[in-house]
């Protein structure tokens, strides 16, 4: 196998690369060796303590993995909630854009009315300078 393939296979087998698979295999081998050796052999108790230590490392790693898994589930729920909130916010933003466009239309209409009133006032001032129809007919 090329080196990249070996690394990839190890990561696939080992999961996150913490060595748990290798650690468990070594534990099984040392347990079998420990069982086959007699209790009179020196280092018997040391080997037993080493196996307990390896077992506790495996349990710790398993607990850590479970905590990470639970955290990932909570994060997924959180992201789904945020996604829904964003959807709601997008609806609110769309409604705000609609209201803004409506207000712009109202402003244009108000400007038009104001312009017309100013023209009416200007015409009324010009008309005021001329005599009314009754005076003109006399």
UniProtKB/TrEMBL annotation:
The keyword Lyase belongs to this UniProt entry's keyword annotation: no
Main location: nucleus
Subcellular compartments: Nucleus
GO biological process, one term: mRNA processing
Keywords of this entry: Coiled coil, Nucleus
Pfam families: THOC7
GO cellular component terms given for this protein: THO complex part of transcription export complex
PANTHER family: MAINTENANCE OF KILLER 16 MAK16 PROTEIN-RELATED, THO COMPLEX SUBUNIT 7 HOMOLOG
Role: Component of the THO subcomplex of the TREX complex which is thought to couple mRNA transcription, processing and nuclear export, and which specifically associates with spliced mRNA and not with unspliced pre-mRNA. Required for efficient export of polyadenylated RNA. Plays a key structural role in the oligomerization of the THO-DDX39B complex.
Family: Belongs to the THOC7 family.
Protein name as annotated: THOC7 protein
């Amino acid at each position: 196998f090329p080196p990249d393939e070996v690394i990839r296979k190890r990561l696939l087998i080992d999961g996150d690369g913490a060595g748990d698979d290798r650690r468990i295999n070594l534990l099984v081998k040392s347990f079998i060796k420990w069982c086959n050796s007699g209790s009179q052999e020196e280092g018997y108790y040391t080997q037993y303590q080493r196996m307990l230590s390896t077992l506790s490392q495996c349990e710790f790693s398993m607990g850590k993995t479970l905590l990470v898994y639970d955290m990932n589930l909570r994060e997924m729920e959180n992201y789904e909630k945020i996604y829904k909130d964003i959807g709601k916010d997008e609806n609110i933003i769309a409604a705000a854009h609609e209201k803004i466009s409506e207000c712009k239309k109202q402003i244009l209409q108000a400007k038009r009315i104001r312009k017309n009133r100013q023209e009416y006032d200007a015409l009324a001032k010009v008309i005021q300078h001329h005599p009314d129809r009754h005076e003109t007919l006399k």
